[in-house]
Amino acid sequence: MTYTAPNQVEPPVAGLPGVDAEPDERLPLPVSRRLARFLVLLAVFVCAACGLVYELALVALGSYLIGDSVVQASIVLSVMVFAMGVGSLAAKGLQRRSAESFAAVEGLLALLGGLSVLALYASFAWLDVYQPALVVIAFVVGVLIGAEIPLLMTLIQRIRRQDPGSAVADLFAADYVGALLGGLAFPFVLLPVFGQIRGALVTGAVNAIAGVAVVLWLFRGSLRRRVRWALSAGMALVLGVLAVAYALAGRFEVTARQALYEDPIVYAERSAYQDIVLTRSSLVRGGDLRLFLNGDLQFSSVDEYRYHEALVHPAMAGPHRSVLILGGGDGLALREVLRYPAVERVVEVELDPAVLRLARTYPDLVALNRRSLHDPRVRTVTADAFAWLRGNRERFDVVIVDMPDPDDVATAKLYSVEFYTMARRALNPGGRMVVQAGSPYFAPKPYWCVDASVRAAGLRTVQYAVDVPTFGNWGFVLAATQPPELRLPDDVPPLRYLDEAVLRAAAVFPKDRPRLALPPSTLIHPRILDYERESWRGY
């Protein structure tokens, strides 16, 4: 045991955080040391919450703009964790001036983190640069987050020396609990109340107040007047920039969103699930109304009838008193189904209530779907189709699967063997199911993977594809427990495009697009997602 004289300060242990901290008696504080330590840990708590919000905001924006949430999350998290290590190392040289360094780091983090979503959206909309910008922003924000912990450790040790293990435990407990708060606040408070851009700006303002103001007040006695004025002016500047950006965020978002679309936007909404945009072009006679979900075109009013006639009517060539539609919340597939007087009931299952509300109320879309969602034969269900099928006990003569393309894990499950098995169980004996399967010309692997997955679910299939000028060649898979005959129903209503001759031609595939023998896609191994990525990279 080392003897220490009564008035001698025991030398710090080399290599531990805070070794350059001033002894307790040399640090003037405006409150008791216990309260000062609590306030620093409270700043840790709030700053950790803000840091996690920045990460989640970047992941969410990538999912909206690019899709493939797994890839976006992997890029953001891996880059930021690496950058945090870099930031921790860089902070070693700042520990001698820990208070002002921490305040400066938090000011920069509040500014850059708060503006990160806005800057990334602008880069995507006007520069058509996303992934490089994402990596740069994630790296810079990660470096600043990583610099927090060493500086905070030094501040805590300056207030009151304690065993390094206990100090680390207290610091990381506050950090992790704060991360929990940020992780819950982002989807349940910030996104619904403020949206992505304003939510990040509000987070930046909270970050600046917690990280800069607390330190400025708590450690003001140890800071030179010039430093105090500089940090105060810097915090005011950060809050001012964030406030101006908040005020202009609505106008910015409208302008940036319009830059992404060729035609004028007539309706835009960011729901809890996706970005919903309607555009209308006056260059086409009668106008061309187009629906986009997360930037992906869903239909053009000029030729959507080709797609929906091909999707619906071959599946109705059999019993069709009861019909289940999975997806298709715009009501256009439903419009074709309701043209049959023999149809007695239809269940429409759509994930996003905002899409259903739009299809019921937006005049141009209501006219296009012929008020199909107002028909008394229709029952709408707002639910995830996969989850709904798991609990479904109803049976139907026809099942129509009209889902968005499988560009991320959330949609890939809707193209799995498990999903098609549950859909098969919803069929009455002799019932038929049809699946939109993408383009066998532009994306042959995803198309034939859908066919393999439907067959693996215990159904027999026939394949066909039609020309939809807006999309190009587009394919479908018709399925039943017995080999289905590709034909139109006897009671088919007058159609604008589809007839028996077109349908026979649709079943003929060119020599350069033969059937591909591919394994099916499952929940555990979503091959369709890999094929989809590969196809679009090649395209």
UniProtKB/TrEMBL annotation:
UniProt-annotated binding residues for spermidine: H308, D330
Residues bound to S-methyl-5'-thioadenosine: Q274, E350, D384, A385
A GO cellular component entry from the record = plasma membrane
Segments crossing the lipid bilayer: 38-64, 70-91, 103-127, 133-156, 168-191, 197-219, 231-249
The GO biological-process annotations, alphabetized, read as: spermidine biosynthetic process
- Would the keyword Protein biosynthesis turn up in this protein's UniProt record? no
Give the UniProt keywords, A-Z. Cell membrane, Membrane, Polyamine biosynthesis, Spermidine biosynthesis, Transferase, Transmembrane, Transmembrane helix
UniProt pathway annotation? Amine and polyamine biosynthesis; spermidine biosynthesis; spermidine from putrescine: step 1/1
Q: Name the catalytic site residues.
A: D402
What's the protein's topology in the membrane?
Answer: Multi-pass membrane protein
Where is the protein localized? Cell membrane
Q: Which residues form the PABS domain?
A: 240-481
Its job? Catalyzes the irreversible transfer of a propylamine group from the amino donor S-adenosylmethioninamine (decarboxy-AdoMet) to putrescine (1,4-diaminobutane) to yield spermidine.
Provide the family line: Belongs to the spermidine/spermine synthase family.
Give the record's subunit note. Answer: Homodimer or homotetramer.
Q: What is this protein called?
A: Polyamine aminopropyltransferase
Species source reads Carbonactinospora thermoautotrophica
Q: What is the lineage of its organism?
A: Bacteria, Bacillati, Actinomycetota, Actinomycetes, Kitasatosporales
